[in-house]
């Protein structure tokens, strides 16, 4: 399909295998040197304005971030009341310790209890493993129609 040639809008030229379109310009529409200088001045002024606006935007964003980072008055009141409740609970626990009713635990006693805990944890773990293996063996040999509840009868 060949391109349309409209003299008022565009001009075409055959450049080998391609068609090249050129915009037709009215020679009366050219700008004078004074108009070009005024346009250049306006462009420079607008670039300065854009730079100042971007700097202002950056400062404003920084202020916004700092304002958003601070807590509101309601949040501060809630936080203070929560801390006061926590302080009362800690002081109540500390009062019992200060009264002398609680006997301090010696490091040797604590080590003995920790040793006993580790020993019984190992025993419980091995017993659990034995139980699981026994359960696996017993359910392997289970009759096809039998349920788990019937095993416990």
Name the average pLDDT: 84
The profile of the biggest β sheet is:
2 strands, antiparallel
Low-confidence parts, pLDDT < 50 over ≥5 residues?
none
The SSE order reads EEHHHH
Structural class: mainly alpha
Give the neighbour order of strands across the main sheet: 1-2
What proportion of the residues form beta strands (DSSP E)? 5-15%
Secondary structure: helix percent: 55-70%
The rough form would be described as elongated
How many runs of DSSP E, i.e. beta strands? 2
Notes on the structure:
The protein is mainly alpha-helical and 153 residues long. The protein contains 4 helices and 2 strands, in the order ββαααα. The chain has a two-stranded antiparallel ribbon. β1 (10-15) and β2 form a beta hairpin. It is elongated, with a radius of gyration of 44 Å.
SSE map:
Blueprint (H helix, E strand, L loop, with lengths): L9 E6 L2 E6 L9 H37 L3 H26 L8 H34 L7 H4 L2
Antiparallel strand pairs: 1-2
What is shown here, in short?
This protein is mostly helical and 153 residues long. Helices cover 66% and strands 8% of the residues. A hairpin with a 2-residue loop joins strand 1 and strand 2 (18-23).
């Amino acid at each position: 399909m060949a391109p349309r040639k409209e003299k008022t809008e565009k001009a075409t030229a055959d450049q080998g295998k391609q068609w090249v379109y050129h915009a037709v310009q009215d020679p009366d529409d050219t700008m004078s040197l004074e108009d070009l200088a005024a346009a250049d001045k306006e462009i420079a002024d607008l670039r300065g304005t854009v730079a100042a606006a971007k700097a202002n935007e950056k400062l404003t964003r920084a202020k916004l971030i700092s304002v958003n980072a601070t807590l509101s008055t309601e949040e501060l009141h809630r936080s203070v009341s929560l801390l006061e409740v926590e302080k009362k609970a800690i002081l109540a626990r500390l009062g019992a310790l200060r009264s002398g009713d609680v006997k301090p635990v010696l490091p040797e006693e604590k080590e003995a209890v920790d040793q006993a805990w580790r020993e019984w944890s190992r025993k419980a773990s091995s017993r659990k493993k034995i139980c699981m293996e026994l359960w696996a063996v017993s359910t392997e040999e289970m009759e096809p129609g039998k349920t788990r509840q019937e095993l416990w009868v």
